[in-house]
Amino acid sequence: MLSPIFEEGFSESSYGFRPGKSAHQAVKAAQQYIAEGRRVVVDMDLEKFFDRVNHDVLMGKLAKQIGDGRVLRLIRRYLEAGMMTDGVVSQRRQGTPQGGPLSPLLSNILLTERDRELERRGHAFCRYADDCNIYVKSQTAGERIKASLTRFLAERLKLTVNEAKSAVARPWHRKFLGYSVTWHKRPKIRIASASRERLEGKIREVLQGAQGRSLRQVIEDLNPVLRGWAAYFRLTETRNMLEELDGWIRRKLRCILWRQWKRPYTRAKNLMKVGLTEERAFRSACNQRGSWWNSGASHMNQAYPKSFFDRLGLVSLLDTTRRLQGVQ
Fold first, then answer.
1. Which of 3, 20, 66, 168 has the smallest set of CB atoms within 10 Å of its CB?
2. What is the pLDDT of residue 84?
3. Do 95 and 53 touch, CB atoms closer than 8 A?
């Protein structure tokens, strides 16, 4: 019931938690701003935003459009609901409950004042929840905007900018919603390196203890992670990272097989089963190299190529992304 009251007052450059808006739209808008010649980004990170929201400032904004005191009291109680840590309840004096269904709407209500200030100054920007990037044409302009907005946020909204995570830089040196761009005149959307690192960390978690499972079961556990990641990053216009990740994942799975076999005789026998000659199979099995080296060696690549993993149903990030993009 609150959303329709406030929705019409939100900025068109605000994309988070709104009907008909998405993170992908924000990324595409950012790409367009850069293509138009705004090749400097003011990337401002709000320090622990959802933990630092000032209740009085937020309630003041709500009261301007909500006349029912009962609703306002209910929202205030929601904001002040205690937090349980190790079985002990502590009172909340600032911030909004993370994960609560109301918090995303409240964040948009609070930050709309910054959106309007940016529009008043004629700036091109994209905001998704508390993640906001402003696109300008020079480093000097970016530094000036960053300084003035830091003051504005502190004075008007009682919010603190995290200086360590904020910067005025080239867009291809920064990330926005997990994406980045290339330096070309017509910039291409690419996946940020930090997003790749997070995926690799998640894959390592899924593969923990994989030696005790069949390869088919490991792949079944892995596929939902890969499918969801590919769906979100389907906007990417560069494919090198996807190819590298696919190759890395297959190598991780080959490494699991090598470790499961344990003994040289078992390794040689399994390599012969998939077509390697007896001489090559035994030479490979007895090379005394580690599991990771063998998983990337020619004998394992020949024995277990991409087609083998395709038959087991392993999701390919590259193939899935291309399919979602409509590329044949």
1. 20
2. 63
3. yes
